[in-house]
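Just curious: can you write whichever protein you like plus the matching structure tokens?

***
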Amino acid sequence: MKLHIKSAGAALAAAALVLAGCGGADDDAAKDGAAGSADKSTESSSEKESTSAREASDGGITITDVEGRTVTFDSLPERIILGEGRGVFATAILDKDDPLDKVVAMGSDLKSGAPGYYENLVEAYPRAGEVPEIGNIAKGDVTVENLVSYQPDALVITADHYSAAKTTGMLDKIDAAGIKYIVTDFRQHPMTNTTVSVTALGELLGKEDAATSFNKEWNSVVDRVKERVAETDSRPSTFLWRAAGLKDCCATFGKANLGEMITVAGGDNLADHIIDTESGDITAEKLIDEQPEIIIATGGTWSKQNDKPQAVPHADLGYGVSEETSRDTLRGLLETPGLSELDAPGDGRFYGVWHQFYDSPFNYIALEQFAKWIHPDKFEDVDPAADWDDANSKYLPFPADGTFFIGIN
């Protein structure tokens, strides 16, 4: 990315017999060839960062995922299930011309969670609209029997899926069915797991060079942000309002996800002082009492009622959304009872960001924008919107037509 600086699977019948003995099983915030179970071992975080696919003695590949598990495949997988549909955010980076190559099924979240992206993807790549959906693993509506029916050589699940499936016992059934899986994470801890996840997917898909190239760019932007933030002792109080307007005020992230990114961008994440979980809620009264200097709301294209006054009950951002609509709906959030008493909007420090950066390897673009909003004097020469345009042009089969960052003024 040009940075803008101004100046195989085993037989279905056999797997089905295994499942008969196991029984059936089995969102934004809720959350696997069937031959032989995956080999597992634990490695340090530094080893996870540096490990690449190693050729096994029989000509196969071994991949290390974000959980430190090593998974060996006899050959490069040809039939892959994306447990989360939004996994295409990453596979498109690795193969812009055929982002769902080898994908035989995927999670049901893409269409509902990122409808603007989905519509653009289907228009540019019609097969995306034909890939079967399996449901949502984290919500418990996916059965191992259904996974087996696609005869996958590999299943890609998220860290959220991994935790949920471990709790419900679904992982035991996946192992018993002989489905090999790798775990990725762009949501829980993006600052440490993004490049590990892209590397693992690059190895799984035989796109290691593309993964290496992307990770180099990701690290370049993140390192620049860290270096500039380190030059100042200022840490403005910042509130991240998650999916603003979709529920009662106000959902947020603590030391995870976009909350983690607020900290790296040089802000003092308000939620870190109030909640002790990765995500939670802060009341309007508490928000008014704390008076954060900066408020960043996430929004998406979750409604088609764009012709109504204050168009939608959330900040409307994403593909196909005009700047005027995004700004109007951002301002509309201030109609939430009590929020008119906040100082940040009047100071011009109330912003909106496309929600889907929270679960995407493109999170580095949001990090860059957060840093510019929090420390404008340190990032005057940085243009995140232009960098996002470049990223779309380089990595996606459609342009960044829409609004992804907005300020109240």
